[in-house]
Amino acid sequence: MRKFNKALVVPAVALALTLGACSSSTEQKAETKSADGKELTTVVVGASPVPHAKILEYIQENLAEKNGLKLEIKTFDDYILPNEALASKELDANYFQTVPYLKTQSEKRGYKFEAGKGVHLEPLAVYSKKLKAVEELPEGGKIGIISDPTNQERALRLLAQAKLVEIPASGEVNVNTVKKLKNFEFAEVAGPQLARSLDDVDLGVLNGNFAQEAGLAPKKDGLLVEATENNPASNLLVWREGDNNPGVQKLEELLHSQEVKDYIEKTWDDGSVIPTF
């Protein structure tokens, strides 16, 4: 189920019909005009609400029109539907995912997508409402962790830095394959529920966007924060393979502009979002 920025909830059957009906909508869009009569190309882009949609809104308000663009931004609260909508041509591009996640989903679902260069990183961090340090995890304690496989591996590698688990030498990395180095229980939770689950666990490993939505920041609130250097989890713009949409390419260019870099650094000076270009 998808939630757009107007909190519209669409039943699964209706959604399937909608996607089918809109399958070629991005190909049929006519150019629009700016206030001074210049032609603008509309680009429909899907994004997570924070920080992705906020970055796109900055571009729409400050950079798009003078570069011949009009952005139509659709927000998604999950990690599955933005790629489904892109594959079905309901979107021209999406901006919500990392390289490892894109690779995993493309292999699993057969997507034929291309990706731009990394735009920003949202550091993963361990948070707690009960403890002041990771080392305080009690015997038999509980750790909240995302259920999504790609992000779960990333979270487990952070817990390995805290010497709470040992990563297997080969094969899949998930809550069932790691070796626990302390007596505790995992609570697998869907990403959007992670922050709310902090009341019920001793530690929670939160993705940056979900932490931000809950008012948490790694520098201020994180007990352990993943390293940013050589981190593959940079977020990027993604579009369909072979779809040489000039509007999408212009958006990719603007996402890597000095103006956007300055905006990210100023808006998230708590380190919760870091430009990677």
Automatic annotation (TrEMBL):
The record ties this protein, via PROSITE patterns, to: PROKAR_LIPOPROTEIN (PS51257)
Q: How does it sit in the membrane?
A: Lipid-anchor
SUPFAM superfamilies per the record? Periplasmic binding protein-like II (SSF53850)
Superkingdom per UniProt: Bacteria
Where mainly found? membrane
Q: Name one GO cellular component term.
A: membrane
In which compartments does the protein localize? Membrane
Question: Can you locate the S-diacylglycerol cysteine lipid attachment residues?
Answer: C22
Ranges in a coiled coil: none
Asked if Secreted is a keyword of the record, the answer is no
Q: Which InterPro entries match?
A: Lipoprotein_NlpA
Q: Which residues form the signal peptide?
A: 1-23
UniProt keyword annotations, A-Z:
Lipoprotein, Membrane, Palmitate, Signal
Q: What family classification does the UniProt entry report for this protein? A: Belongs to the nlpA lipoprotein family.
What is the protein name for this chain?
Lipoprotein
